[in-house]
């Protein structure tokens, strides 16, 4: 409809780069990787067509590598956040009760000054 705003830049019409986690960084890294790979290959061989192919392959490999690395780190971060949230929730629930681990007398604690 006329009142609806554009949803952002879509790569190949399918991948919404602004809303997909890691997509923007992965594409930027891929662009850098493609330029680096293509230029290095061209400088070493002076073959234009093959340098373009190497640059495209560099784009694909760098983009996918960056994408998976970022997604893996995000998944790790989500797991850590979930563990921390569960710990905070348990602290709130059990604080001050007999199940509170900080409330128990510790056997290995020294009984007096030494």
Automatic annotation (TrEMBL):
Pfam families: Cox20
Signal peptide (residue range): none
Assigned keywords, A-Z: Membrane, Mitochondrion, Mitochondrion inner membrane, Transmembrane, Transmembrane helix
Cellular compartment(s): Mitochondrion inner membrane
Predominant localisation class: mitochondrion
Chain segments carrying region Disordered: 95-114
Any one Gene Ontology BP term: mitochondrial respiratory chain complex IV assembly
Superkingdom of the organism of origin: Eukaryota
Any one of the GO CC terms: mitochondrial inner membrane
Family: Belongs to the COX20 family.
Protein name, per record: Cytochrome c oxidase assembly protein COX20, mitochondrial
